[in-house]
Design a protein that fits this description.
Blueprint: H1 2-13, H2 16-28, H3 33-40, H4 44-65, H5 67-78, H6 82-110, H7 112-131, H8 136-163, H9 170-195, E1 201-204, E2 207-210, H10 211-218, H11 221-229, H12 237-242, H13 246-261, E3 278-283, E4 288-293, H14 301-323, H15 331-351
Antiparallel strand pairs: 1-2, 3-4
Helix pairs in contact: 3-13, 4-8, 4-9, 4-11, 6-8, 7-8, 7-10, 7-11, 8-9
């Protein structure tokens, strides 16, 4: 009897042992970015982000398209020649091309949100500078600087939006962004029809403003609004995790989850994020540095600080390393073909 009682008591204790062993791994399992962003859900935060993206898309379209509308009005005021009009039409794109590499490097080192804020603030200043221009040289300089500043937000906006949505909604978001750019393209001629035919003549101190300058000044409003709105959004968790800043990434995930589910931030199901820092590991046989993605839990803040310091030291060198393949085989030939095809497409659109 005593043996049976002991066996029964022993059997009753056995199920408790595996339960205690199974629960901690489920609660403490490190989640990667895709798992965490899917757990944050889709809701109010994503809707607010799309609303903020509307003026951002409008600012991008306005920066690159206003010249074609104001040249007939500004031709007499600035005494533009045929060559001047051609330069004004192209100089914005020259600024975008000359700064594309720089903005790509800054987006991967300084963050998406910071670049959007700085880019749209700088574009607002450049657009207003173009609106107050009193001669063709000033207008050319500000249009070049406007293209130089807009190249970053134009590309990073897409990246930021995709990284703030889960896999289920990511493709639909890109379709909606395309619709935003189309709507922005349609609003510009309507705005030009309302303002440019007016015979306005304003004097601000020693500056003389015509209707076309008022039109250019109004097109700065979307960039100004985007500059203000992006202050209220967090940094991309994808970028933060790639830099080892998992605590900040967790805070961003909790904000998204809180707005989408209307639940407390502490109820976010993910409790630990994986380390997605890409660490170059040297192969001794070949003597090459191969980036290997390590996904392990972050154990302490000291590890994050050490990795962030190493990333800052090697960021410039890694940026040039990433550009090197564009100028070597086999990518050089393929890149030249793509550039040529794109040039022919744009040339055909211009001729037609």
């Amino acid at each position: 009897m005593s043996e049976s009682r002991e066996s029964e008591s022993g059997d009753s204790k056995l199920p408790k042992i595996p339960e205690q062993q199974e629960e901690p791994p489920q609660n403490d399992a490190a989640a990667d970015f895709e798992t965490a962003i899917d757990s944050a859900g889709f809701g109010m935060f994503n809707i607010l982000l799309l609303v903020a993206a509307i003026p951002a898309a409008m600012g991008t379209v306005y920066e690159t398209s206003t010249m074609s509308y104001i040249l007939p009005s500004a031709e007499c005021d600035l005494q533009l020649s045929l060559l001047d009009k051609g330069i004004l039409n192209a100089i914005t794109y020259a600024g975008m091309i000359s700064s594309a590499v720089m903005w790509g490097y800054l987006a991967d080192t300084k963050g998406r949100r910071n670049l959007l804020i700085v880019g749209y603030a700088a574009d607002t200043v450049c657009v207003l500078g173009g609106a107050f221009s009193q001669n063709r040289i000033q207008l050319m300089v500000f249009k070049y600087l406007g293209g130089f500043c807009m190249s970053g937000p134009f590309a990073v906006l897409m990246t930021y939006l995709t990284e703030m949505h889960g896999r289920k909604h990511r493709q639909r978001i890109m379709m909606m962004v395309g619709i935003m750019f189309s709507i922005a393209t349609l609003t510009l001629p309507g705005l030009a029809m309302l303002i440019l035919p007016q015979t306005w003549d304003f004097h601000v101190w020693t500056l003389k403003l015509a209707s076309w300058q008022v039109f250019v000044a109004i097109t700065a409003l979307p960039s100004l609004l985007s500059f203000v709105l992006f202050f209220f959004f967090p940094e991309s968790p994808k970028f933060l995790m790639s830099k080892g800043r998992n605590q900040e990434a967790m805070t961003a995930f909790k904000i998204i989850y809180h707005l989408n589910s209307r639940k407390p931030k502490d109820s976010f199901p993910i409790k630990l994020l994986a380390n997605e820092v890409i660490v170059p590991v040297k192969k001794h046989k070949e003597g090459k540095d191969v980036p290997i993605e390590i996904k392990l839990p972050m154990e302490s803040a000291e590890v994050q600080d050490a990795e962030s310091q190493d990333a800052k030291k090697s960021s410039l060198r890694s940026g040039f390393t990433q550009l090197r393949p564009l100028f070597t085989k086999p990518y050089l030939g393929l890149s030249l073909w793509v550039y040529l095809l794109n040039f022919c497409v744009l040339l055909g659109c211009t001729v037609t």
